[in-house]
C-alpha cells in the first residue's frame, strides 16, 4: 500500500505536468516562466533528461536521451543553441514517462526496496531507506517544484 | 521505513523553504514571484494556513491560525488589505512546522495508516490508502510546488 501511495503521487504529478505542457502551443513553449528565468521549453527538456536518468539510477535500463544532458542538465537555458525540436521533446516526454510506468508496474515490493545504483552496498546496509522508492519520492517533488514554475505562464 | 522515507522528504522540503523565507528581508517578501503573480508574503501566509489545516485533517488537533484563511486561502493575493505583520507570519511558519513535527514523531505506524478526517469510515474501508500518510505526501508536493516559485525571486 505504501508503494501504491507513492506511485499515485508520481502519476498525478506526471499527468498534471503533461496537461500543462499540452496546454502550450509550440510558440508558447518559448515563453519565460519569469523575466530572465528559464523558458518552458528548457524545463520540458530538463524534466525529460532527469526522468531518463532515473532508468540507470533505478537499475532498470539504459538512457534513451543522453544527448539532452549538455543542453538541459549541464548548461543553463539559452547557452546551448543546438536544441532538439519542440516536436521531438514532446514525444520524448510522453515516451520516457510511459517507459518508466511500464517498469514501475512490474516491480515487486522487494524490488522497490532494493538499493538504487548511486548508493554502495556497504552504505545501503547501514541506510536501507536509500532504495528505489526513495528516488521516486524525490523525483516527484522535483517535478512538483518545476510544475509550480511552468504553471506561472498562461495564468 | 516507508514512513521514515516520507517524513524525510517532508522535513527536507520544510527546511529548504524555511531557508528560502529566511533569505528574504521583510521588504523582499513583498516582491512578486513573476509580474502580476503572487507575492512571496502571500505564499508564506498560504503555506502557514495549509500546514495549519493539516492538524484537524490529520485528526491531531485544532487550528492555530484560522484567521489566515480569508486572506491566504479564500482570496487571491492583494484582495485582503488587513494582513498579519511579516514578523507574525515568520513566527507562525516556524511554529506550525514545529507543532506538526512534534505530532509526527509521536505517531505510531498504525496511527499513520489510520484514516484522515476528510474520508468517511465507509470509503476508507474500500480505500485504505486514504490515510494520514497520504496527506503528508500530497502536502510535501504542494510545498515543493510553491518552493519552485519562491525560489524565482533573488536568483
Summarize this structure as a short list of keywords or feature phrases.
homodimer, about 160 residues, mainly alpha, 7 helices, globular
Walkthrough of the structure:
Two copies of one chain form a homodimer. With 155 residues, chain A is mostly helical. Helices cover 60% and strands 0% of the residues of chain A. Chain A has helices at residues 2-22, 40-57, 69-72, 86-106, 109-112, 121-126, 132-150. In chain A, helix 1 (2-22) runs parallel beside helix 7 and helix 2 runs parallel beside helix 4 (86-106). Chain A is globular, with a radius of gyration of 16 Å. The mean pLDDT of chain A is 95. Chain A binds chain B through residues 1-2, 4-6, 8-9, 13, 33-35, 37, 113, 128-129, 131, 133-134, 137-138, 140-142, 144-149, 152, 155, and chain B through 1-2, 4-6, 8-9, 13, 33-35, 37, 113, 128-129, 131, 133-134, 137-138, 140-142, 144-149, 152, 155.
Radius of gyration of chain A: 16 Å
The oligomeric state is: homodimer
The most extensive interface, with participating residues per chain, is:
A-B, 31 and 31 residues
Number of E-state strands of chain A: 0
| H and E order of chain A | HHHHHHH
State the secondary-structure class of chain A.
Answer: mainly alpha
Q: How would you sum up the global shape of chain A? A: globular
| Terminal residue distance of chain A | 36 Å
Amino acid at each position: 500500500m505504501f508503494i501504491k501511495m507513492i506511485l499515485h503521487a508520481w502519476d498525478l504529478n506526471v499527468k498534471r505536468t503533461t496537461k500543462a505542457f499540452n496546454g502550450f502551443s509550440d510558440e508558447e513553449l518559448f515563453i519565460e516562466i519569469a523575466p530572465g528565468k528559464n523558458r518552458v521549453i528548457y524545463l520540458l527538456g530538463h524534466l525529460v533528461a532527469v526522468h531518463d536518468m532515473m532508468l540507470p539510477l533505478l537499475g532498470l535500463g539504459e538512457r534513451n536521451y543522453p544527448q539532452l544532458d549538455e543542453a538541459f542538465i549541464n548548461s543553463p537555458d539559452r547557452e546551448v543553441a543546438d536544441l532538439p525540436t519542440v516536436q521531438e521533446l514532446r514525444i520524448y516526454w510522453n515516451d520516457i514517462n510511459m517507459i518508466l510506468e511500464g517498469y514501475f508496474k512490474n516491480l515487486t515490493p522487494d524490488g522497490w526496496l532494493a538499493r538504487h545504483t548511486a548508493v554502495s552496498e556497504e552504505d545501503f546496509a547501514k541506510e536501507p531507506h536509500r532504495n528505489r522508492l526513495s528516488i521516486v519520492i524525490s523525483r516527484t517533488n522535483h517535478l512538483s517544484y518545476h510544475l509550480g514554475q511552468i504553471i506561472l505562464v498562461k495564468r
